[in-house]
Amino acid sequence: MNQILARIWLSFWHLLPANPILVRVVGGASRQRKHLIYRAVYLLAICAVVFFSIVTIQGSRGLNELAKEASQTFKLASYTQLALMCFLAPMFTAGAITQERDAQTYNILLSTPLSNAQIVLGSLISRLYFVFSLLLAGLPIFCLTMVYGGVTSSQIFESFALAGCTAAVTGSVAIFISIAGVGTRRTIFSFYLVIAIYLLAIYLLGNWSPTWLDAAPANVNGRKMSVLSALHPFLALEVSLNIVRAPDVPLVAGRPAILRHALAFPSATYVVWTAATSLVLTGMAMFFVRHGAKTGEPTFVSQFLDRFRRQASGERTRTPHVVWKNPVAWREAVTKSAQGAGGLMRWSVIIAGAAASVGLFLYHLTDPAGMPPTIVKQWLGGIIMIQFAIAMLIATNTAAVSMTKERESKTIDVLLCTPLTSTYIVFGKLRGLVSFAAPLVAVPVASLLLFGVYSLLPGKSQGMIWVETAVELAAVMVLTLAVVCILSLKVSLTSRQTVRAVVKSLAIVILGTGCLTLVTTTITQQAGQAGTFFAPFSPFSGIRYLLYPDTLSTSFARQAASMRFLGFVGSAVATGVYLIIAFSMYKSLVTNFDMTMRKQTGT
Predict the structure, then answer these.
(1) Chain centroid to CA 54
(2) What pLDDT is recorded for position 424?
(3) Which of 159, 169, 374, 508 is spaced 20 to 30 Å from 415 by Cα?
(4) C-alpha distance from residue 292 to each of 22, 126, 182, 388, 545 (Å)
(5) Are the C-beta atoms of residues 516 and 476 closer than 8 Å to each other?
(6) Using CA atoms in the order 492, 497, 502, 505, what is the torsion angle rounded to 10 degrees?
(7) In the structure, what pLDDT confidence band is assigned to residue 120 with cuts at 50, 70 and 90?
């Protein structure tokens, strides 16, 4: 019996604590400077949010006011922590297997005596170790908010549990996709895109009044808890922070047991189902570890499908392509190699965005009372924000893999042997990338034009949306995509691995856009009626306040004309600023192109 227990303990010891992958990654990466930078940036972000909250909150210094300020600070810090977890968890975990494949060591790893469970758990836990260490590093900052009251230890525990389980489920899904998929260089981008769509879509539905639970009490703003709160981390966090309240158990007693607990305890339900999903996906991933090694071997399904595919013998013809004047731009925008972000994904986003906008327009036409102009503008703004956020992610990923794919496929050597100059190559890359991402902006612009022209018709919702807003936001969004493409192209040029280029580009774009939106939103709110001038300097704040300018003024009817003019001037100035930034970055990229390529070739 003792020998059996010893064997069980030894198996468990080698499975987790003494897992070779876990020991190697944790022991080696803990001494890397980049992980020190990650921790420092994470803590600085939370500290900046806390400091920003303390500075901006006005009021007296009584104990009650201090407790309210501490509660508000804790809420902002919790939102920031959860958002960072949604970003950092897939970044750390999805790179576990892809880095092995990029370094050509994955097959060597499969040839070792390590079991499937050791490979999966070692990769997952070693990456989640850094995520959970970030959570623990921020714990003292959250504990400081308890000094003045207004924050309980249970709220801190629930906030950390939601963030930790979110990291665990995103990490387990990323590991499962990385191991089960064969081509995994786009795993991070695809997973980020799915996360963004899920979080934004469910959150918007949760703020829609038809999804509110009738049995839940309303807060001071008249908002109730959504029935989707148990499925979304931010909606569950709102219940934990008492922004909205969950109904008492007797009020939902007539529902099934699982649904009853999900409605009465959404935070606990979210923790339970995400933890269970993590365990299931981790177990399923163990069956796919060595499945990829057999890829390419004939199977019954592949042999059956080969009967209907085009055979090698016989004449094969196709219509020749019409290439642009700049072949580099055409290759980036049209050919299959440039569609690393997925042509299917791009067209899916375009069709879904158009369907959502047309559906919203028809809903307003058929039921103006049920969908008044104020609600229309809120939904239209959310739809456009989602579409533009996806467009930025697609543009970032496509530009980030532009040069690394050339280098990994050895086609960069062929390109450099041609008479093409660095200016020709860089401009072609940039033009092709912008042309690839520009159709994603066409749908939001067309939606704005549709509602803007409709508001001009007599007897309709006058002034619901300014018609020139479509042109203003179109210029800002296109030039923002150009800046994003140039920035990601520069990262791709200086990076040796595709995954690292994608992760670095996504981090810069997401953090930069978030900080810019935060600053622009604050300035816009403080400026009052002049806020329409500052809003377009960030595309997201521009979408929000140019569609809903009456939130910036208490006497909007009298000041609408001046605010409309300031919005036009601000959009023109913001467009000029983005144009100058894009041109300066482009010139710098052209100037350093040859030297950067020599350094990459030499190393």
Answers:
(1) 28
(2) 86
(3) 508
(4) 22, 22, 6, 35, 49
(5) no
(6) -50
(7) confident
Q: Is the pLDDT of residue 216 over 70?
A: yes
3-state secondary structure of 226: strand
Dihedral of CA atoms 577, 583, 586, 590 in degrees, nearest 10, equals -150
The 3-state DSSP class for residue 565 equals helix
Model confidence band, residue 182 (pLDDT cutoffs 50, 70, 90): very low
Amino acid at 337: S
Residue 456 pLDDT > 70: yes
The three-state secondary structure class of 212 is strand
Please count the other Cβ atoms lying within 10 Å of the Cβ belonging to residue 440.
23
More confident residue, 19 or 343: 19
Write the DSSP symbol of residue 150: S
Domain boundaries of the chain, sorted by first residue: 2-56+63-291, 327-602
Split at pLDDT 50, 70, 90, the class of 8 is confident
- Count of CB atoms situated within 10 Å of the CB of 18: 12
Amino acid, single-letter form, for residue 272: V
The DSSP 8-state label assigned to residue 211 in this structure reads G
Residue 222 scores a pLDDT above 50 = yes
- Could you tell me the end-to-end alpha-carbon distance of the chain, in angstroms, rounded to an integer? 57
Tokens (6 digits) for 183: 């081509």
DSSP classification of residue 438? T
